[in-house]
Give the backbone structure.
Amino acid sequence: MSAPNKSYDPVEVEALKPEAIERMRSDALAAVAAAGDLEALTHVKTAHTGGGSPLALANREIGALPPQAKAEAGKRVGQARGAVNQALAARQAELEAERDARVLVEEAVDVTLPYDRRTAGARHPLTTLSERIEDIFTAMGYEVAEGPEVEAEWFNFDALNFPPDHPARETQDTFFVEGAGGSGESGVVLRTHTSPVQIRALLERELPVYVIAPGRVYRSDELDATHTPVFAQVELLAVDEGLTMADLKGTLDHMVVSLFGEGMTTRLRPNHFPFTEPSAEMDMLCYVCRGASVGNPDRPCRTCSSEGWIELGGCGVVNPRVLTACGVDPEKYSGFAFGFGIERMLMFRHNVEDMRDIVEGDVRFTLPFGMEI
Amino acid sequence: MRVPLSWLREYVDLPAGVTGRDVQAKLISAGLEVETVEQLGAGLKGPLVVGRVLTIEELEGFKKPIRFCTVDVADANRTGEPQEIVCGARNFAVGDLVVVILPGGVLPGDFQIAARKTYGHTSHGMICSARELGMGDDHDGIIVLPPGSEPGTDAIELLELVDEVLDIAVTPDRGYCLSLRGVAREAAIAYGVPLRDPALLDVPAHNGDGYPVRIAAPDGCDRFTARTVTGLDPEAASPIWLQRRLQKVGMRPISLTVDVTNYVMFELGQPLHAYDRTRIDGPIGVRRAQPGEKLTTLDGAERVLDAEDLVITDDSGPIGLAGVMGGAHTEIADGGSTDVVIEAAHFAPIPIARTSRRHKLGSEASRRFERGTDPLTTSAAAQRTVDLLVGLAGGTAEPGVTEIVSPAGPRTIAMPADHPDRVAGTEYGRETVVRRLQEIGCDVLGSDELTVTVPSWRPDLAYPNDLAEEVIRLEGYENLPSTLPQPPAGRGLTESQLLRRRVGRALAGAGYVEAPSYPFVGAEVFDQLGLDADDERRRTVRLANPLDGTEPALRTTLIPGLLGTLRRNSGRGAHDLALFETGLVFLPAAERVAPPRLPVDRRPTDEEIAALQAALPDQPRRVGAVLAGARELPGWWGAGHTASWADAIEAARTVAREAGVELTVRAGRYAPFHPGRCAVLLAGEQVVGHAGELHPRVTKAFGVPGRTSAMEIDLDLVEQAGGERASGPRVSTFPVATQDVALIVDADVPAAEVEGALRAGAGELLESVRLFDIFTGPQIGEGRKSLAYALRFRAPDRTLTAEEASAARDAAVASAATRTKATLRGA
Ligand SMILES: [Zn+2]
């Protein structure tokens, strides 16, 4: 509280007149409203709220007023300054929002641009299809067994009950490994099927044995649209007490349902393989027409040639002589086995028409199969 | 085995209206692989008749010889007048019986016959060739029929032109189905009708007056029937029905005697041989050949015999390869022989199979003996042959009969009556089991325990499971239930199997495409790879019978296969390629040992298994990769990145990392890599592979793009080196202290050494080191480079002070200075 001022300056007092303050306030608000961008607003702020601004000067003048005038002038100036600051803040927020929006618009990109910077990779469908089959059986408790690709004849033939000189050996189109001095009598072959893994599994594992054995096998066929000298097979072997041919059928049915969906089934036809007795050829229902094309010329099926069934491979009850060769008591144990070619499965499961596409390694063939099949 | 339905019906009363397709389905279900049903004479329509050629006029002035004939077709043309026919064939004469199709007839292939003008005459029909009639014969001339038919006779019926022929792929266990008798038996069972067994003949017993036979190899020949027929008419030709049946089963008619022996073989499954008696010198013998003995077989080839070969002999030496092929000398003469000795023997399968394979000589006879013939059929087959020869060629059967038989009891199998049930997993019951076994020709005795005497034509039936199969197949495989066994809990994939999957996913995730290749290579591949003459990789496992003679060996490295695939892709227009393969390579053992021949009647001992294993090459699993073109493409985002040696090494690191192994990389020199851009890859101190840019000569030799990079790593070794479970690190939440250092070293100091020195010196506070820049230039000095590293320090239990971080950095730099002579840039 200052002492009464008796020598006040009438001119200065003029500046604190209500009309003058009102003008300062309206000038300031007009300037704020007129500021078109944040930079202009900064100038406005300095001009109307800075130390040299009319309202700041007016505020300083208040002290010179007589006590009775001070309160009212102070109130008036304070209200004006408050209003200006409020307008400034509002305008600031408004301009910042405008700027932010503009920046985001400016930063917009064409999200449809292609981005093939890194080319994709893929696993071969023979690998992934083998794995898928493995997974079906490992989920049931089977394990995955393996064996070498260059194999002793004893594993590939003898122990599988292909007697030496038996015509069945002739049907295998075997690649023989050269023996000493270039002879073909080395006793070693490129395995002609995955069945020698049956023998290895029985020799190496504790009973009961439930294994699935995928792998590469070899037959001396020239490469053409349906043959390849190097191909992939999957073998299954189950040896336990009390296993039957019906168990074989059930296992096959389970597999085709897992690979092709509900309603799929298999069919067995008698055949002969030395290592199974009884032996069968296994067919699966054509998953495309499900048999509807049979005897129905209006609905021909390319997948099964309107036969309704697709030949998968061979199977049967493990020949007790195979068990004997592996030291398994055939009086106590029995088993079943099957084997089929993955290429064929790939061909009809994925509409592949030419074997050469599978074996040639063209990336355009493999890429669509991705990581899993 | 081709089976004409008309012939089959002679032994089985198939239901009326049954077609070849029906029989096919029934036999397939019974286990015979009937591959096709050929429709003979499909579309053939008469009038097709026998005609006798009356006149032949040779027409002149045409490009080829043409005949204008008149042919007597009796009333078949409704006029009885001679039929005028123009014919281009010349293999007939006036008086011959031919087959004529008259206007209105249709030949197979929808060939409509009408009277037509040709060569200046009107031809009223056509004289037919075998091919035109769909008889499948291979010669072009027209058919001249043997005498005996009347002109005008319907030739469709006479020649049995309309028929169905089943073609059966007989599996090795069903040798008996290489005969009409065997297939008829299966058909009879399938249709539930009786079989008229053509082998059920009355046969005379051995009487000592027959042609003398001495068997010196009873292990190879346990039965030998010899019969003699004399006074055969050498002019006698095989009747049409016999010729037609032979044609339908795929045999070419030759002469009556040969045709009859073939006919009986197809009928009964017993191969026979007929000798011209005038050409045999002394008793017939059966023995092993003496090594080096020679025999010229019927096919004209002179064969040097092996001591294992079973031969038929006379006093002059071998006159036939037993069960495989007769000799040329005792062959039935072209014009036919008047006196013949008929051999019907039972030879053991294995010697026949071996001889057939040794001499690369297969025959209808050897096919049957290899699979096992019916030993009890020799006498019946001989009798049937004698009967036919007597009936068709006017011969006389000599009363002398030679029957040499090694005594052998019937073969029996003991089997619990419920064994088929237990094999099948269903219940047939004893009654069904016994009935089915009887149907296939077994004698069955006993109630719970059956004693089954198997028929002589089924040598494949030896064990209870063989009998179970018979019951199950006849009851129908399609009637088996479908049950799912319950395996014990499994352990899932092995670590090694999981690793392989991870490696595949990691490489595919990194942009590589899996491309398995064939493992066959030729020696030139190793030259193309630039391998030294004594490089281990040139030692290969070789095939005795490669598909392609230029690729007789198995791969010892994955790189050639991958380069071949790269080349193929690149030739098809792909330029940015990254391929990988996981597979075996084949490394021969230093010393090759033959595997022992192990028995199969017991488990081999561990030593025996080890001996088998030792005979096999080492077959490690490798992962290989090749890259060419862009690893990263240029585009709107900026520059791309060309695939390089660094990517190849990174691919190897990717593989090793999946096994939990951090590879050590050293510079090396190793074919096929660029000598200055080759990395030796180590797990610990073990070399596990190589990576880098390929040598320019190698890329050129393989025809792949220059600067193609590659890597190959031994997955088995990497797996052995890894396998340690990752242990969870304690994560410090205190702040990191970052220190950058630039070190100047000689240009040839490997970056890996500098980093190793920094790590060694920095101590426990070091969290990571990263090389973020390499700089060379005048400021650094000739032959020098500056390596800029970011070092990050952190303590597990406190915030590091600036002094602590600096001290750790100084220690790291000091270590680098000591080990690599590094100096701190700007110091
Ligand atoms: Zn279909």
User: Anything to note?
Assistant: The mean pLDDT of chain B is 93. Residues 802-820 of chain B form the longest helix (19 residues). Residues A 286, 288-289, 293, 301, 303-304 surround zinc ion (CB under 6 Å). Chain B touches chain A through 110 residues (CB under 8 Å).
